[in-house]
């Protein structure tokens, strides 16, 4: 994708497309991920996965030139991967605990409050499936903005209640008190899955309706729930391609 020609990525309003034809579904997903870092300022982007990583690079190349990218270890890099600086672990932790990082994670399970599970499936004492583990998800969701990239929509992923809470949702953050809700206060008309609560998580643009032309009824069926009004996203998304199924 030629970022300089893509109006949706740059905010110019130019129709989305490439020199070879209409934008692909993958390119729309990359743009949606890139929009997550719009307006964040000089913060560290921590995308996990191929599409979020390309999205972070697109944001850096277009509307967020101040965005910081890393090689996943201890080096700040440019969009092309060339080293730009040194980021030792102690400095990285300072960014995380100070709220100057925006991470995009995945989820094996996620509920309508934004509680995320990447640890296990089934009872915690004797799980039927052992997954990645809790890792840094609790600290991420309490100390800096978090978004979720979930490419596969199914009732096994979008659940009524996660088997284990790794990433903290807005309901649990509210119960924990002010110190836990710093990044759970973005106003919206609905919760992460469209419930009636007036607040939703920082993890915006992670539920099916945020992807262009994702039909609410079909998305609801895939996540095993009733059709609800789609959540509002802070950044606009481009129109769907003509051949969207």
What do you see in this structure?
With 245 residues, this protein is of the alpha+beta class. It has helices at residues 7-10, 25-35, 50-61, 89-97, 137-143, 170-176, 216-222, and strands spanning 44-47, 69-70, 75-77, 83-86, 101-105, 109-110, 116-117, 120-121, 129-130, 146-148, 186-187, 199-200. The strands form five sheets. It has a three-stranded parallel β-sheet with strand order 1-5-10. The chain has a three-stranded antiparallel β-sheet with strand order 2-3-4. A two-stranded antiparallel ribbon has the order 6-7. Helix 2 (25-35) packs across helix 3. The radius of gyration is 18 Å and the shape is globular. It starts with 6 loop residues before the first helix and ends in a 23-residue tail after the last helix.
Question: Whole-Å distance between the termini?
Answer: 21 Å
Estimate the helix proportion, in percent: 10-25%
Low-confidence stretches: 1-15, 186-216, 226-241
Helix/strand-derived category reads: alpha+beta
* Helix and strand run: HHEHEEEHEEEEEHEHEEH
Largest sheet: 3 strands, parallel
Widest beta sheet: strand line-up = 1-5-10
DSSP summary: helix tally? 7
Look at the structure and give the mean pLDDT.
75
Radius of gyration: 18 Å
**What's the total number of strands?**
12
| Tertiary shape | globular
In percent terms, what proportion of residues is strand? 5-15%
